[in-house]
Request: fold
Amino acid sequence: MAVEFCLLHTISAQVDGREVDLGHLRQRQVLAALLVDANRPVSVERLIDRLWGERPPQRAATTLYSYLSRLRRVIEPLGASISRHPHGYVCEVDPRTVDLHRFRDLVVRARSAEDDTHAARLLTEALRLWPSDAPAEPDTPWFNALRDTLEGERLGAELDLNDLLLRQGRESELLAPLRLRAREHPLDERIAAQLMLALHRQGRTPQALEVYRDITRLLDAELGLAPSPSLRRLHQDLLMGAPLPGTDGPAGAPGDSLPGSGPGTGSGSASGSASGEGPGPSPVVAPEVARLPVPRQLPPPPPVFTGRGRAMAELDRLLEPPSAHGGTVPIAGIGGSGGIGKTCLALHWAHQRLEEFPEGQLYLNLRGFEPSGTPTTVASALRDLLDSLGAPEGSVPTGLNAQVGLYRSLIQGRRILVILDNARDTEQVLPLLPGSPTCVVIVTSRHHLAGLVTTHGARLLTLGPLSTADAASLLTRRLGRERLRKEPTAAAGLLQLCGGLPLAISIIAARAAVHPTFPLRALIRDLHGAGGALDTLDAGDDSADLRAVFASSYGALSEPARRLFPLLGLHAGPDIGLAAAAALAGAAPHEVSRALTELVRSHLVTAHWPNRYTMHDLLSAYAAELAAADPASRSAFERLVDHYLHTAHAADRLLSPHGEPIALAPALPGAAPVRPADHQGALAWFAAERAVLTSLVAQARHTELHAKTWQLAAVLPTFLARRGLWDELTATQYAGLEAATALADRSYQARAHRELGNSCCETGRFDEAHAHLEQALTLYQELGDTVGQAHTHLNLGWLWERRGDQQRGLEHDLLALDRFEAADHETGRARALNAAGWDHAQLGKYEEAADFCREALALQQHLGDRRGEANTWDSLGYALQHLGDHRQAADCFLRSLHLNEELGHQYNQAETLEHLGDTHEAGGDTAAARAAWRRAADLLHAIGHNDADLDRLRTKLQNPS
Reply:
């Protein structure tokens, strides 16, 4: 008897080719909902969700039971069964009789086959299981998602087969179906690459190049993305006539896979540039991916862990093959109250399964429940992830959607674990999810993340208090069996006070461990007397007296540690360094280090990195409440602000030695600011303290330290702009503007408006930029600040150039030059000379342009302004090129390029490379021109610059003169 259950088209069952009556549609959908997870339990709640979504009938469970009862009678004669399970219902069936599981098995076997011919035969057999025209079943959210997932798997298998056929030289039979797929999936780079290669092989290279132009325009318009590096390489190879995949060697030769090809790559991704997991025919990983760093960001595992066996088993299901998850990203959400052990569970599991993630582990604390009430923004979280994945400085696009795309491109196809800890809600998490099923995601939150289930099929685990046995085991492992055996009643009393909360048990155990001879019954007396001081502290679990636990441990500290602990609650950042902690305490770092070590031993503070410390948010809330009751806290906070302000000021001067410094009063005694040693040290300090600094600006404003607020805001733009952190720059400048307004400080109001204008200009908000810059100019004029006016005119000149009006740009740059000269401001004068020279060149006045640039260059070399010199060499080269002096022009561009490479300004490098290519072309060296243009285009792609500059380069590469 040949039995087949069909899910790839209308839900049905057949015996020897004859259809079996499974009942009406809803009943058949129950069977499908079980067969997708064949031989695995599916909970009643999940079945109801799959059948009815958010609108189940009033008696959904009763209706479901009746469907299950009828289905049992129908399928048992077919060799299948439905049985009750502690976690739901299980349909026990031979997977080979279910077309979906047979399809997935064939695809997995094909991707692990060593022989192309055998792999192609398996894929062909898998694709034959699909009907040519499958009628759609009536919609429910889950079935809609399942249909999309299955269609994605089908397309992925089809494209795998296309790769094999292309390697076998059978492109002629692929042209028609590839054209159809390209129309259906216009953003799929893998389809585009296959169609380009097939067209080229058929002698239709111009049409292949048109395919590339079409998808490039669409990716830019729809997603704000550039084509993947591998697709760009294929395009460049077509332009240059270089050897292409499968054309210059035997079929199946190593390394002949197409861009975006390889087992498990799938389809529908905008990047499509990295192969999936597992062996397969000629697997390829794009060189750009292979060079990326391997992030190892997991904090240390909990030193003692017990219980949570069922939760660990649920997390292990994340490691099942991608087919078990329907080709989607495996996600687990761990929920529960504060102190219940969500993070400990995630880290314990992650460290136990490190070998499963050879390409790295990302960890991000989203600070969803910080006492400050300010969770990590999506923009800040994305930037941290991009930095961790090796996105080079200056390469990150400005738009949030483009940053999401870059993040998902960098992580595509890599076996990476992503832990998003302490999330506020689903909206905070969604942009941070990878798009590749090779990744695994764990999210922890005190809130129920039901949205992750609806949108991404996440598994939700809700942790409750430890069982009595597990809680006793945790306490025993920390204090030893013998000590608890001597005082069983006291031990039971301690556990009752802790209410099964691991955080409370750990703190109590740490307190007892510090005093090994201290009777446990005396500790209970202390706990009973220590509660009540923190009425607002809430762990979300009434059975645990955290107030008493925290207060008792705090009271047992030495005097230095007891003084320091409340002060740590004043710090709003995600963590604190030793130097900043010393500033809080107003003590020497070596003294504070000893106090921090004691706090770590007491489990009140965590050392998550050498000389950097963090606190659980409940402990931070406790510390903040203690600090609020201490009049000395205000002076401690002001020392902390001075520490960061003076250190940031010194670092900013290293990054921008020719900028306009602000004047600071001497740092408060005990603030002990640090001075970075050099340019790289300044960058490293800003990178480590960035989140702290942006939080501190808001905190200083909230505490009405108005002068410190605007001063902090004033020392951040150089670093934030260099990193492209425009959202953070805007937020800090608005805070500074409010503080300056409160002080009626028009000078800094003007400076803040100027910085806001620059930020708006760089992010394409030209009208807002103009309004801010005009306001800045008005304020500087009222103040009689000639230098401020000059800088603002330079900013307006750049704004008008961005808007395409070179003449108005020149007018503002000449006004800037006039004012810098009046103020005898040499650095500004040199930059205004260069800006005017560039404007003249854009207007076709090349002799005048060269004169302006030569004057600027001499001044910048005298001043040692290397950044300004780099810009001016480029402007001079541009003018000389158009005057016909190609040799001197090329020399200027090379000087500019060398300086910009040292300074790390990638956009300027790309601009100079384009100009160098133009000079080579004008001098008749087309090959050198195209090489320079290609380098420029690659740099613009890398930094997400997808505007007219890139279109111009594409045109030059496609139509060389």
In short: Residues 246-291, 531-544 have pLDDT under 50 and may be disordered. The first strand starts at residue 3 and ends at 6. Residues 141-167 form the longest helix (27 residues). The CA atoms of residues 475 and 481 lie 9 Å apart.
